[in-house]
Amino acid sequence: MRAFVMGLLASACLAGGAFAQVAPADTPGATPAGSTFTQPKEWSATTGAKDVVLTAPEGNASLAIVDVGPAADAKAASEAAWNIFHPGGHPPFKLTEPLAAHDGWDERTNVQYETSPNEHRLTGAVALRQGNRWTVVIADGSESTWDKRGAAIYLALASVRPAGYHRESFAGMTAHPLDDARIAALKDFVKTSMDELGVPGVGLALIDHGKVVYEGGLGVRELGDAAPVDANTLFMIASNTKGMTTLLLAKLVDQGKLKWDEPVTEVYPAFRLGDEATTRQVLMRHLVCACTGVPRKDLDWIFDTNPATPPSDTFKELADTQPTSKFGEVFQYSNLMASAAGYIGGHIVHPNMELGHAYDLAMREQIFTPLGMNASTFDMARALDGDHASPHGDDVDGKPRVANMAFNYVVEPARPAGGEWSSSHDLIKYVELEITQGVLPDGTRMVSTENLLARRKPGVSTGEDTFYGMGLETDASWGLTVVHHGGSLAGYKSDIMLVPDAQVGAVLLTNSDTGQDMLRPFMRRLLEVLYDGKPIAAPMVAASAKGIQVEIAKERTRLAVPAAPDAAAGLAGRYMSPELGQIIVRREGATVVFDFGAWKSEVASRKNDDGTTSFVTIDPTNDGFNFVVDTHDGKRGLIIHDGQHEYRYTEG
Description:
- This protein is about 30% helix and about 25% strand.
- The chain has 18 helices and 32 strands.
- The strands form six sheets. It has a nine-stranded antiparallel β-sheet with strand order 1-2-5-6-7-11-10-9-8, sandwiched between helices. Strands 13-12-23-22-21-20-19-18 form an eight-stranded antiparallel β-sheet, sandwiched between helices. Strands 25-26-27-28-29-30-31-32 form an eight-stranded antiparallel β-barrel.
- A hairpin with a 7-residue loop joins strand 9 (about 105-115) and strand 10 (about 120-130).
- The protein starts with a helix and ends with a strand.
């Protein structure tokens, strides 16, 4: 649920005489009391006496923006909003957690409700207060639709503001240089954020007008070990790999070996999607645009992949993957598609090599060596043998712990999408190339400006004033463009960012899952330092830190650790899924462990509100995978699902 917090109109008649206005484009709107918002393209809007209800094109998910007025607190305001939108229609209340106050609101609170996995329902609310009056945004509907249309949700939710509020903008302003005082301010922000979020170590680098003004580390590589993080400490950078994969493609376009608008099947005939019509439409640029309608489908490689899985399996998985939205309709992030792009690029450079080796060598020759990124690697053994940061995550009681590295090995077969190890020292060189638009420090042009910038061209919308290009995202939330991309693997969260107007860039690498809640605030803090912005970043981190602990504590009350003996007694010793492989159930004293082959985790049991029982993984960084006990054709089973897919395991 925390992820949630994260023209002319055509009219159609509804039952009861109401009219739903369907937006042909993202359209400004307002509630009856004057709160403003943006109605997403193709969503319908129905206005009542005290609310506006935005409904997804599928018709099974809605956002209600409700003018509540005075209320005792966020929970009371949310209850009043439900009584206006859908009386008696919400699940049991779970918890409230604070959000940072900004965008004209004096108070912002996330309100969560209890739902059971088999409901496939997403329900929640954000309560917003200005003065003594509340506006509440309610989300309710099909989890599949929310997963597919998450960008539209973020657009609508982020755009809700009080009547008359004018957004802060840095457009046209001259940035301050990153002098000693401003560098110190950024480092202080990182230190404080680490303390609040429980992040053991951070790699940080800053560049201003071609000069690296800071590179180094804060904190330690591993809890319980005094070895400090430094500029050369390696972290897994996860999806930050994508920008360098598309840089490889840009160089191949420069070399005449590839065209952005070339059909993928002409470049690599073995490429297929589950839908033949979409296969024919996919050009090389579309592999990395997150716009083809291909969903994430990450559970397939998380549970049924190991270091020995051949990279060619990327193409087998894609051949079995059906698009779930129209081509170019919505943002749907796909690691498999980005993985395919990298392997095709490597194959073009080294056509006679195995796909993984070809990609690794092409990246070394074409990207790492020219940039002087000498420590960067896709070799897990090499990285772990040297100066590297260990992964960390909170345990089931909210305490930071060193995590097992095994989970992260599953990215190796899809490494063009997220398997790179790098350091702040190395990555700032890549950021510098983005700032110079393709020119190396010695004046040599590494890649053409045209093809480097093609990767940043705004494509599909990811939210309010944010767009995905090709392995890079552009963010114009504050009146100027920030180019960036985040990265997330178990125990590693990171971001690279540059502000082209200021000729400033940054690298932020963390070795903890809670580092995720530092990334966007750091981007905001960088802009505050450059442009004397309002101090919003620090409260963002403080609110996140409190919210994390509130949510962990509440969920802990629902978990039996170790798993309840009566529930555990009903488990089979082995389960099989045709898509996800096997689970071996191991009992280590009172502890129950699910072993997936490449990685494993202790599981807790959970009694859900619908009467079902779940087993939930709880090891640090591997937590939160929810397996619902099931019986099918007389056999014991387990069910797990992501936003748009359900997978069934059967004993055997």
